[in-house]
Amino acid sequence: MSGPTWGFLTNHFYVLRCIAQEPSLTLREVAERIGITERAVQRIVSELEEGGYLLRQRDGRRNRYVLREGRPRRELDATLPLRELLGFPEEGSAEQEPGTPRVLRV
Question: What is the Cα–Cα distance from 64 to 56, expressed in whole angstroms?
Fold first, then answer.
């Protein structure tokens, strides 16, 4: 018997989570971890940038991404802060470990 063909979270969430956890990953590495194509990851990253959730920064020959809170996509999302969905403690919290990516509020 094979595994389920659906999940509770979208590929957009998985891409955002991978980038948040390890900002040094390439989009190819993100694709491999999630199990989707690199082209799909590129499209998702573009959509997340357009939505205000990611800010692209050049780091030599590579891109690095800064996460931003962005606006909720749906009314039901309004009570779920992005940092909470991604499993990060509140900014300035004692639980925040040095080097942990921060989600910026704008």
Answer: 6
Q: Which residues pair with 64 in a beta bridge?
A: 57
The dihedral of CA 69, 49, 55, 21: what is its sign? positive
* Per-residue pLDDT tens over the stretch 5-62: 788 899 999 999 999 988 888 999 999 999 999 999 999 999 999 988 999 888 888 8
Q: How many CA atoms lie within 13 A of 104 on its CB side?
A: 9
CATH architecture of 11-89: Orthogonal Bundle (1.10)
